[in-house]
Amino acid sequence: MERATKSIRTRFTDEGLAKTAFPVLGALRLLTPGAAVIMLAGCGAKLPPCSSGLTAVPRQQTQQSAKKPFGKKVLVGIDGSGSMLGYAQANKNVWPRLLQSISQGILLEGLQPITFRIGAGVAEGPLSGSVTQATNPCFFIGCEGYRPVASSLETLWTINREVNLLPLRLLVSDLEVNQSDISSLLARIRPDLDKGASAGILGMKAPFSGNVFGANGKVIQQGNVNRPIFILATGPKEQVRSVLDEVRKTLSLRGITDTRVSIIDPSNSLETKFAKWIGGVPAKAATSGINIRLDGQTFRPAQNPDYQFIRLKTEATGLFVATTKTLSKGAERPDFGIADIERLSTSTGQPQAVEGIQVRSINISGSNVKLKIEIDQSAVSGLYRFVIPAGSMPEEWWVSWDRAEGVKTNVGSKTQGLLLLMTTLSRQIAGAANAPPAAAMCIALQN
């Protein structure tokens, strides 16, 4: 009889808890399978929502310029500095096709391009004729009536042709800002953003022949290379989007299909991404998807889908957390400061001090992100949240085309400061709209 009694007893083991016998399987067997699962899954405490304290209500577009009529004139600035010379010297005819596509794309939208040569703090123009004047190497060297100029990209945003209209501005440049100091450029762009302007960028890599100059004005590569060239646009959202799209289409018809386009608009940041996958570093030094014991309570993944659960073994050095289970290769860089780390109270969700945890690298793949987190053995077990604020999630190509400080290879095929410029611009636009975070990845950690 005793053996029979033992046979209907089952031991449930929850790590951190004493083993307890439940002579209730007979009762569970009387339930439907679904009801039994619900009864068992219901055993476990509930964590605060991952989005606790983060919810933002996107502002309605109330800036005064949002209701202003659109102008019909497009202010086109072409960087006249010497760093642009190599595009005009290349013999593959891509640079003229780009300039022609810009002019055609503007005209096809029923707009009128007004072109300026930008450099040395001066906007020379309007130039007579079309933007294709910049196919002449003298435009960059300083001859045949053109004076040599240094880069001053912000000058385009000092032109105000129609005071009562928010202008569409297009800057054609390699975006190699002097000394990588983007503050002057952003300061000049800011008044348009405050009036409701959106921003966008079209990038492509064009044949370049000659000296490649770095942000410090020194030659960093010589010869032939496919070099990034950009059209940076600000203005009414509809015009930014339609003109860049028309330029892209025109380039494709001219045989140039490898382009990148990004539109920076608060409406792109209305949905926060949450953690969908977690793993240890190294992989075998952790167990994920299991119950965790914190602050005297047991928490279960099934009851807390906002969180990824993981238990680290002594040999673990950290973990990976991602917004998707199937992340492709993407563009990876050492931590560049876009993610904030918070430790959350298990009861209230209120942030607490964080020690022994830091972001080591960031991988951007499409609209998803994976963080590599270094965790010291002194780090306390608990809830942690990794937040990427609104506008701070870069596009993958901004990362892969950016030339990081100290990089010595493929320097001519990348642009120093691109990631900083575009991420900062995106943050300004998203911040003005009070958009929610781009990502909030919550984990329940037992260390």
How do the helices and strands line up, and which of them pair or pack?
Blueprint: H1 2-7, E1 10-12, E2 20-22, H2 25-29, H3 33-41, E3 70-79, H4 85-89, H5 94-108, E4 112-119, E5 122-124, H6 138-141, E6 166-173, H7 183-194, E7 198-213, E8 219-235, H8 237-253, E9 259-264, E10 273-274, E11 277-281, E12 286-288, E13 292-294, E14 297-299, E15 307-312, E16 318-322, E17 331-334, E18 340-344, E19 351-352, E20 357-365, E21 368-375, E22 382-388, H9 396-401, H10 418-432, E23 439-446
Parallel strand pairs: 3-4, 3-6, 10-23, 15-23
Antiparallel strand pairs: 1-2, 4-5, 6-8, 7-8, 7-9, 11-16, 12-15, 13-14, 16-21, 17-20, 18-19, 18-22, 20-21, 22-23
Molecular shape: elongated
CATH architecture of the largest domain: 3-Layer(aba) Sandwich
Strand content: 25-35%
Please tell me the total number of domains.
2
Helix content: 10-25%
**Order of strands in the sheet with most strands:** 5-4-3-6-8-7-9
Task: Specify the biggest β-sheet.
Answer: 7 strands, mixed
Unreliable runs:
1-42, 61-66
Number of strands: 23
Helix tally equals 10
Q: Given this structure, which CATH class of the largest domain is correct? A: Alpha Beta
What is the radius of gyration?
28 Å
Q: Tell me the structural class.
A: alpha+beta
Distance, first to last CA: 45 Å
Calculate the mean pLDDT score and round it: 86
Q: Predict the CATH topology of the largest domain.
A: Rossmann fold
